[in-house]
Task: structure prediction
Amino acid sequence: MAEGDLKISTLTVHAGQHHEPITGAVMPPVFQTSTYAQPWPAKHTGYEYARTHNPTREALERCVAALEHGHEGIAFGSGLAATTTVLHALPAGAHVVCGDDVYGGTYRLFERVFRDRGLTFSYVDFTATAPEDAIPEGTAMVWVESPTNPLLKIADIAAIATRAHAVGAIVAVDNTFATPIFQRPLDLGADVVVHSTTKYINGHSDVVGGIVVVKDSEIGRKIKFLQNAVGAVPGPWDSWLVLRGIKTLALRMERHQFNAHKVLAWLGQRSDVKKIHYPLLPSDPGYAVASKQMCGFGGMISFVLDADLPTAEKLCASTKLFTLAESLGGVESLIELPAAMTHASIPADMRRARGIEDGLIRLSVGIEDADDLIADLDAAMRAARSGS
Ligand SMILES: *Cc1c(COP(=O)(O)O)cnc(C)c1O
Result:
């Protein structure tokens, strides 16, 4: 059977992997080496030096490429290293149109590293601006995150790609939140997908990593060249851990979603919850586009507690199963307060204007038992209100 015929939960287990030919080892080994012996000067096995080629990394790259329906995967040492390398593929002076609600580290990279090197950036709210207005002639690349963080806003990837291609721009989508289990941007018209594999793809909060998947060989050749020329590659152990994590990606995403739905039902009944953000709730402003381009959504929820900042802080500090931490997408549940943590660097009035209220709480719902998670949130809410 060709890989293209297989369903995604089969691909998560098998794609890109072969049994090791000498011993039959079922898992691709960790090729922990920096170089490879050559029988004769300049005659080698295809493996010359490990920045350029590593079989463990290549298994990971083939696997994620298959999950995303892409031509090629190119792995990196972090999500931001992946993003950096995509930006290096642009010519000097290129203009990038970027969603106004992207991951903070992406914004910092664009504004404080690449702007100084001659790229220009404009930021738009893709949920409020038509692609024709958002993407001017002369744009070289459109950078989209959907759903966004922490408000889980949805951009219409197909509509953006149509306009971008009409002006000769390529479209890169950060698919970290949805994962290929629930959204495949290349099928919607994007040219490049970027992941922080640190999050759901690895899923066990024990690796920092990134990957780029490209739709065609031309941009693939450029980014592959840059992977070697710039050198921000992941090590073999981290590649192997991510590959192992992917085996359960489909199962985990289903369970994250199942638990999130239970937590949502509980939050929905509370009178002290003012607003819930989850793109696949019919009441969510992103619902129509989300149900068109996604086939599910995982464990990310954000909601606004009718409370001041100190009460929200106390809630976040009072949970026992939900760990108070940044990051997301691991098997364990996390809670965080964007106004005080991930988004604290945005001035308070700007933050509130963007919908990041003081009582906004973000949950990364893990794969524990949902009833235990709800009991934990319930106890923490009571503790936060008690004032003790
Ligand atoms: C974490 C994250 C990144 C950055 O990835 P690192 O692996 O931390 O470098 C990029 N985009 C999104 C949406 C993220 O959540």
In short: The mean pLDDT is 95. Residues 250-386 form a domain with the Aspartate Aminotransferase, domain 1 fold (CATH 3.90.1150.10). The first helix runs from residue 8 to 14. Residues 78-80, 103, 105-106, 145, 149, 174, 176-177, 196, 198-199, 208, 210 surround pyridoxal-5'-phosphate (CB under 6 Å).
